[in-house]
Amino acid sequence: MNYKNPVISGFHPDPSVCRAGDDYYLVTSSFEYFPGVPLFHSKDLVNWTQLGHVLTRPEQLDLSRAPSSGGIFAPTIREHQGTFYMVTTNVTAGGNFFVHTNDPCGEWSDPFFVDHPGIDPDLFFDEDGTVYFTSSANGDSGPGIYQSRIDLKTGKRVTDVTFLWSGTGGQYPEAPHIYRIGKWYYLMMAEGGTEYGHMETIARSERPDGPFESCPHNPILTHRSLLKSIHATGHADLVQTPDGDWWAVFLGIRPHGYPKRHHIGRETFLAPVTWTEDGWPTIGDNGTVSETMPTGNLPLQPAAPPPSKDDFDGAALAPCWNTMRRSDPELWSLGEKESCLTLRGSETTLNEIGAPAFVARRQQHFNCDVSAHMMFEPQRDGEEAGIAVYMNDRFHYELAVTRIAGERKIIFRRKIGSLQKIENEAPWTSDSIVLHVKAVREQYTFGFSNGIGTPFWFGSGETSLLATEVAGGFTGVMFALYATGNGAKCESPAHFDWFQYEALE
Ligand code: 6LW
Predict the structure, then answer these.
(1) Cα–Cα distance, 468 to 252 (Å, whole number)
(2) Model confidence at 361, in pLDDT bands (50, 70, 90)?
């Protein structure tokens, strides 16, 4: 039996995993999006269902000043004596903190901020009860992995911060995790940067605080300069199955073209871990992985895929949805019009570091059809609502209904860095419209219809112009329902009575 990589597709970077009994939990980074830190559950490491998010309350997550790709960086999730801990960094407000819960499906605690520098924090619980806090920082010994001990009850640091290891010489030593396996304490980390030179390396010691000895066959995972469909593999975390097998989750990308570009973000991959006789691990096939890999002993339990159509009938948004920087009832609501998601555009546009009326889900397949039924009567010039293919505040495409010189129009706009242009516009007289986006590997095509018959295709844009290699940052493309008054509040709400995401792979 085989499974398919990535196991969680689309913008889901920096995975961290833990096991409690037969249940696996996994978290990924979320940057400027609210709620923060997507949380997934699995029984087999291959099939993952999103439970929701860890950081769901404004008291836990201040993103008000987070630029695109600011905010929440890489998390670590651990279970210890029945309590789950998630530790991460808000790089724009407060730094390192952890939250905890006894029920990962329920609410998590308020944050405990930890006075320890750097990013990519890890929590390690030693058998004697000592709790080690380990991060990637640029301290007295230069860029590397630094550690302190903390008091778990308060989050207070109880020792100085000491240097552990800088890795094998790659840039950006980061994403440390400490494991105790047999007599060894292992320090595993990423090096080379989260791009094409990415790799995973490991060292070990008889003490959790070192000195650490580097594995003789480092890196234990890398695709640098290989002719592969998957690149940038690294930022791994290890987990052991109840049967005793070891597996790794890690990030990777699936770029295309030359030079390579990827637009749907860094994704979560899975590979088996094998150990040498003298106790060193290797990830995958001698440090390389594939899109199809053998399942080994994993007890595959395919999960039903989430429904492709969202009718916005529920009392809450499905877990796949995200807002920008904060969740504001003035900007979006459910049930205001029966079975609709209602957006009320504010002055804020998609080009700003702010909180526009924006409800978005990740693009998780290169080939997919996205459509939404919208009802919107713009009252004033500049009122606008529609669907955006959004990478960040400087790179996005949108198909929208707006009013220009008193006339209702459908427009297609592209924003590529400092270039912004309405590429096409046409009169639209109805209050109701179905918006369509067709995504293939190289291109997005935008169209509209009155809900009957085939869409009228109206504009297109290259996927590569939204790619990370062009747009920068750490995130991936989102499909966003949005509204804006372009500098003033919209008088009229935009109602969406359904949204459909059809994967075509
Ligand atoms: C993550 C770090 C990284 O915290 O990217 O380049 C950051 N390295 O490991 C955001 O994903």
Answers:
(1) 13
(2) very high
Calculate how far, in angstroms, residue 121's C-alpha sits from the geometric centre of ligand 1.
11
* Proportion of the chain above pLDDT 70, given as a percent: 100
Active site residues: 14, 174
pLDDT of 375 strictly over 90: yes
Average pLDDT over residues 66-75: 98
Residue 208 DSSP code: T
Residue 235 Cβ inside 6 Å of ligand 1? The answer reads yes
Mutate to test the pocket of ligand 1, among 12, 16, 29 (most ligand atoms within 8 A of CB): 29
Task: Answer for the pair 66, 325: CB distance below 8 angstroms, yes or no.
Answer: yes
CA distances from 186 to 129, 191, 351, 424 (A): 18, 16, 44, 57
Topology given in CATH for the domain delimited by 309-503: Jelly Rolls (2.60.120)
CATH 2.115.10.20 in the chain: give the residue spans.
2-294
**3-class DSSP state of 470:** helix
User: Is 136 a residue whose pLDDT tops 90?
Assistant: yes
Atom of ligand 1 nearest to the CA of 29: 11
What is the 3-state secondary structure of 22-79?
CEEEEECCCECEECEEEEEEECCCCCCEEEEEEECCCCCCCCCCCCCCCCECCCEEEE
User: Is the confidence at residue 303, as pLDDT, over 90?
Assistant: no
Nearest atom in ligand 1 to 235's CA: 9
Residue 464 CB burial class (10 angstroms; 0-12, 13-18, ≥19):
buried
Q: Which of 255, 320, 242, 334 is nearest to 22 (CA)?
A: 242
The residue type of 176 is P
Q: If DSSP codes are grouped into helix, strand and coil, which group holds residue 339? A: coil
**Ligand 1, closest atom to CA 73?**
4
Q: What is the pLDDT of residue 453?
A: 86
State the fold for domain 2-294: Tachylectin-2; Chain A (2.115.10)
Ligand 1 in reach of 31 Cβ (< 6 A): no
Distance 14 CA to ligand 1 centre (A): 7
**Which residue's entry shows tokens 């010039």?**
381
**Predicted local confidence at residue 402, as pLDDT:** 98
11 lines ligand 1 (CB under 6 A): no
Give the pLDDT confidence score for residue 265 in this predicted structure.
98
For CATH 2.60.120.200, list the domain ranges present in the chain.
Answer: 309-503
pLDDT over 90 percentage in the chain: 98
